[in-house]
Amino acid sequence: MHVDLITYWIRIAALIITPIAPHFADHIWSSPAIFNQPQSIQLALWPTPDKPVDRGLLESAEYMRGTVKSIRDAEAGLVKMHMKTKSKKGAANSDLMFDPKKEKAVRVYVATVFPEWQDVCVSIIQEAYVKAEDRVDDAKVKELLVKKGLIKDKRAMPFIQTFKVLSQLMKIIIYD
């Protein structure tokens, strides 16, 4: 972590906690070891964001939280399974590949663009979108899939259906 980031976080936290714990916040604010401000935190301005919220970044963070939770849940399940097999008399644990005592690591790769076939599917959805009716024309989607050679690709239709459902959900979330 970078020292400027930590200092920024402490500064914002002190300002936000001021209405609830003014003495504690003022101690942090005026402490020579931290900020060494000559005036009371009561005279400081409320924090304002430097730039607008990045929705993509928030969605990425939410996705990663879900992924980490899934990984931890899977690990907990493996530990339970390991304990069950360990507690059975005479059970051979040598074939079990998971060892809770060993160090674990996970690598997460993040794509910045869709694969080519998904880009084509997104463009098909855009072409088949009927703005006046606010819907995607399924007959035109099928026609365009045939035209682009993706009709037999088993990944295309489930991706398009998921994309359409997520688009509808985003409209509901944004406009409702």
Produce a short descriptive summary.
With 176 residues, this protein is mainly α.
Please report the total strand number as a whole number: 2
SSE order in H/E notation? HHHHEEHH
Structural class, please?
mainly alpha
Q: Which regions have little confidence, pLDDT < 50, spanning 5+ residues? A: none
Strand percentage? under 5%
Structurally, the number of domains stands at 3
Major sheet, described briefly?
A: 2 strands, antiparallel
Mean pLDDT: 85
Helix content: 55-70%
Basic shape: flat
- Rg value: 27 Å
Alpha-carbon distance between the termini? 39 Å
Count of alpha/pi helices: 6
Overview features:
two-stranded antiparallel ribbon, 176 residues
Description:
The chain has 176 residues and is mainly alpha-helical. The chain folds into 3 domains: 3-43, no CATH class; 52-109; 116-175, no CATH class. The protein is built from 6 helices and 2 strands, in the order ααααββαα. It has helices at 3-17, 22-30, 55-87, 116-128, 138-148, 156-175, and strands spanning 129-130, 135-136. Strands 1-2 form a two-stranded antiparallel sheet. The mean pLDDT is 85.
What is the topological layout?
Layout: H1 3-17, H2 22-30, H3 55-87, H4 116-128, E1 129-130, E2 135-136, H5 138-148, H6 156-175
Antiparallel strand pairs: 1-2
Helix pairs in contact: 1-2, 4-5, 4-6
